[in-house]
Amino acid sequence: MNVCAVIPAAGSGTRAGFSRNKVLQPLGGVPVLVRTVSAFAQNKAVARIAVCVNEQDRAQIEELLAPFAGVLLVAGGETRTQSVANALEALAALPCPPDYVLVHDAARPFVSQKIIGDCIRTVREHGSAVCALPCTDTLVRAQSGMICGTLERRDAWLLQTPQGFGFADLLSAYRRIAPEDSFTDDSGVYAKYVAPPFLFTGERTNVKLTYPEDFAMESMRTGIGIDTHAFGAGDHIVLGGVRIPHSRGLIAHSDGDVLCHAVMDALLSAAGLADIGNRFPDSDPQYKGADSLLLLSRVRAFVEEAGCSVGNVSAAIVAQSPKLAPHIAQMKENIARALGIAADDVGISAGTSEGLGFLGRGEGITVTASALLRSRR
Ligand code: MG
């Protein structure tokens, strides 16, 4: 069985609002087209991938796709239909033309291995395989901005790609296209000249990137922070902004809020920024006795300036004394307020080290924290 993929990528990107071909746009640092081609290259059954390119993008796409074996660049046409026709003719001219062809939009980079596998299985069984989702929204007909009829949702499907066909059938259908024909995808060509295509169920994540906001994909970033302060003279400690009476204080340039410090470092680390030692140096007199909750809210601003927003934070305090349990709810509230998140999004646990090591001997307090950021970079 010889399966090839056709990926038309000769469009412009005007709807997505880019000055260049939208499929060259990076998504999480990787161009959309590279992600899409990579998905098909990963499937062992796919022998060749014909990519339709326009002349001005050819050199760049050739370079981007050089790491992938079996890629064939084909000149794109004026329309998607013309581009696919050119790709089918190029595959027909190979010494060993494919048995099946999967046509897939370059702008659907999240196509899963399951979808590609299902498409191949379905086309082998039924001769055609069009990826589709059942329609969950209400469908209506409208005229002059007013609803004039409801469509039966039960019979409605939203078509995605890949769309798989017997190669000879699709090629013959494309060779019969009349000048007045207009198609938005290959299922239309196949339906008109061969037979009603067979549907298989796609995935909601297999979206077609069309508008600028589609490219602003949210990603998650995690970070970790750790801080230790030694006990010294004093009559209280400050943890998470809560003043807790104690026989000793924590030695520090600031208020010694070791919990806030660990959380700050976790946040800065998640955003890829320099740590608090760099941000708020000990040597700087303005941080003498500083309120660490205020510094925490400044860290939030740094993180937001870096294109991130705080998801949640979690911290584990290790201290032999004092008893912290009665204060944890207030610590959560203080930290949540400084970060603009809900108290539920702040997790704090406290424990001892079972008498082991410097923490067990009561020489200080250590806090380890983690943070999750949402990034729209
Ligand atoms: Mg510290």
Distance between the termini: 42 Å
Mean pLDDT: 93
Number of distinct helices = 12
> Fraction of residues in helices?
25-40%
User: Mind telling me the CATH class of the largest domain?
Assistant: Alpha Beta
Name the helix and strand elements from N-terminus to C-terminus, one letter apiece. EEEHEHEHEHEEEEHHEHEEEEHHHEHEHE
Give the overall silhouette. elongated
Strand content: 25-35%
Number of strands: 18
Number of domains: 2
CATH topology of the largest domain: Spore Coat Polysaccharide Biosynthesis Protein SpsA, Chain A
**Which compounds are bound in this model?**
magnesium ion
Stretches with pLDDT under 50, minimum 5 residues: none
What report would you give on this structure?
- The chain has 377 residues and is an alpha/beta fold.
- The protein has two domains: 3-215, Spore Coat Polysaccharide Biosynthesis Protein SpsA, Chain A (Alpha-Beta Complex); 218-376, 2-C-methyl-D-erythritol 2,4-cyclodiphosphate synthase (60s Ribosomal Protein L30, Chain: A, 2-Layer Sandwich), CATH 3.30.1330.
- The protein is 30% helix and 29% strand.
- It is built from twelve helices and 18 strands.
- It has helices at 32-41, 58-64, 80-92, 113-126, 167-175, 186-193, 212-215, 258-270, 276-279, 292-305, 328-339, 357-360, and strands at residues 3-8, 26-27, 30-31, 46-53, 71-75, 100-103, 128-134, 140-143, 146-150, 157-166, 199-201, 219-232, 236-239, 242-245, 249-250, 308-318, 346-351, 364-375.
- The strands form five sheets. It has a seven-stranded mixed beta sheet with strand order 5-4-1-6-10-7-11, sandwiched between helices. Strands 15-12-18-16-17 form a five-stranded mixed beta sheet. Strands 2-3 form a two-stranded antiparallel sheet.
- A hairpin with a 2-residue loop joins strand 2 and strand 3.
- The model has no long low-confidence stretch (mean pLDDT 93).
